[in-house]
Amino acid sequence: MTWEHPKIPSSYEAETIGKTLYELVLKNKSKNIIEFGSFGGWTAVCMAMALRDSGGEGTVTSYDIGNQIISVPLTKKSEHTGLYSEIDRLGVEKYINFEIADYYQWIEQPFKGDEFDFLYVDVGNTQQTIKLLRQKCQPHIDNGAVVCFEGGGVYRDAFVGRANSGYWLDNHDIAELNPVREEVRFITLFEFDNIITDSLSVLSRE
Predict the structure, then answer these.
(1) Dmax of the chain from CA atoms?
(2) Angle, in degrees to the nearest 10, between helices 42-53 and 17-28
(3) Would the pTM count as exceeding 0.70?
(4) Where are the alpha helices (DSSP H) in the chain?
(5) Is 161 left (phi over 0), alpha (psi -120 to 50) or beta?
(6) Alpha-carbon distance 81 to 102, whole Å?
(7) How far apart, in whole angstroms, are the C-alpha atoms of residue 44 and residue 35?
(8) pLDDT in tens, 5-60
(9) How far apart are the C-alpha atoms of 167 and 122, rounded to whole Å?
């Protein structure tokens, strides 16, 4: 099977950020994937598709603080028929677990005992969000884990603080991430220059 856009409503639906995550998981042969910021389940499904296509092993554990799909157990599929019908259609149900957790508590514990070789964070990211990623996840990075996050690109940052741009950052009090690029040491892998602008960055292993 190959990449295809999941038929799930998402602000990323028109972007290639999902395909980039899919390809990252395949390239790094990741098996133990942690996501923070499930929202509608779109990116979790994208990464689960990569597990399906790389030999059928591994799990995406997707955490959120309790809104959207996360407040509904997987057994109550009738309440999110669009998401779960796509999960079934794409054959990725056995690769996804949706759970409740707060990123800032999780990363300080550390990690609730979770082992991971791939971590993706999309929690309305601030400079503190990604500084904690570098500080707390460095041992995992040294051992080969991929740690990536939404944001970091200059086009995304250009929308921070702008009103009525039509971009989701209009409604969020989020600082620019690019100014801490050298301190945190990250590389922006995907950036799309458009009115709907998203980016994906990964922490450098250097």
Answers:
(1) 46
(2) 30
(3) yes
(4) 17-28, 42-53, 81-90, 103-106, 127-142, 154-158, 181-184
(5) left
(6) 26
(7) 7
(8) 888 877 676 667 888 999 999 999 999 999 999 888 899 999 999 999 998 899 99
(9) 16
